[in-house]
Amino acid sequence: MKEIDLSLYFEPCPFMEAGAFYQDDTLRLGRVVEKYTVQGRFPSVEGAAVAFIGLSESRGGVSCGGVLSPERSCNGADAVRKDLYNLYPPSLPGKMVDLGNLRNGKTVEDTYFALHEVLACLLAQHTVAILVGGTQDLTFAVYKAYARLRRMASLLSVDSRLNIAEGLGPDVDFRTAPVSHDSYMSRIVVEPDNYLFNYMNVGYQTYLVDSEALSLMSRLSFDACRLGLVQGNIQETEPYVRDADCLSFDLCSLKRSQSPGNPWARPTGLDAEEACQIFRYAGLSKGTDVAGVFEYYPDLDKEGLSASLISEMLWCFLDAMQHRIDDHPFSSSKVDYTQYTVPLEGVEKDLVFYKCKQTDRWWMELPCSPEKQQQYGRHRFLPCSYADYKTALQNEIPPRWWAAVQRLR
Fold it and tell me: What are the angstrom distances between the C-alpha of 118 and each of 113, 136, 403?
């Protein structure tokens, strides 16, 4: 891959210049991060375990009510930095850099291009990217980075909506319709070079989703887990998160009382502890390369509550990264597994489960030809839970296994 000068795409963070935003002189997280400031050099990403990127692109913020006003922008990365960098540091996984804020292009498409160029560079050298700010349509640029590297990817959106075929009429051509935060997945699924293995949603609220969107998710064999199944049972989200290359978190999925910095948040939604747990799962997952928090509008966050919550979510992600273990059956040769074979009536091949003895995490092996195994790589092993194994013991096909098999065809 051709080397590019990443500094051309970024603006420094002026408020961090003097370090006056630190609460005291003790060791804070911000003091162990190499940051791009006005007087400082652009940090080298070589050997970086984590790169923090601020975003402010909001032109994809189109909803049923029309385009957002210019005064309302998702430019909250600096507000999050002020809180995050004042937390005491966890045991970091390695070198961490803050690249500053991505410059917005002349058009929103220019911004997509810049972001996917930067991310492709980071992914190629196995640097985890943390994105904060901007509207959720920027997930499209994340997908384009995987496509540029010709890597199959699974995307997980934590959102109260599905972002597919929503707000679009039945006669709209997804290939030419503008990419928006309401329907960016509609564009991804029709990209000519398809590198999307799976799209998953966690936390959707049924009364906010039209029937056509749910029907399309089913036809494409994508996974969706509604809010009612998540609340009080957050551990069931772990296999979804572990399966994701990219975690895209929309603040509208949170209860408004716990995160007022989003105009579409409702009284119901995920709570703060559940959001932090999801990010901890992502930090533990060896496969998660990109974690983004989108749709934060700082002008609505009068007391900084949303900024504080986002910083705690990211802290949980960083803290968990030090405990990452490659226990994936496709790539790991240093861990032991217990294999379980479950025959099912009406299924040509037995279901094969693997349980890692070190981590207690489960996988299901997907039946596919040698050619498909080469094409899909690690995705032919599907993260699952003990509950999926118990479902198979009852002579029932786990729904996620069935959906994954359909995607392999």
Answer: 9, 17, 33
Distance CA 55, CA 42 (A): 17
> Which H/E stretch holds residue 353?
strand 351-356
Contact 244, 196 (CB under 8 A): no
pLDDT at residue 103, as a whole number = 97
DSSP for 197-225?
Answer: EEEEEEEE-GGGS-HHHHHHHHHTT-EEE
Q: What is the pLDDT of residues 313-366, one digit of tens each?
A: 999 999 999 999 989 888 877 789 999 999 998 788 899 999 999 999 999 999
> Are the C-beta atoms of 52 and 98 separated by less than 8 Å?
yes
The answer to whether the pTM exceeds 0.70 is yes
The yes-or-no verdict on residue 172 having pLDDT over 90 is no
Structure tokens at 376: 């899909």
- Across 73-173, where does the E strand assignment appear? 96-102, 128-133, 153-158
Distance in angstroms (rounded) separating the CA atoms of residues 157 and 287:
15
Q: Which tokens is 395 given?
A: 């002579």
Give 175 or 380, the one with higher predicted confidence: 380
Average pLDDT over residues 217-239: 94
Pair type for strands 10-11 and 96-102: antiparallel
3-state secondary structure (DSSP) of residue 78: helix
DSSP 273: H
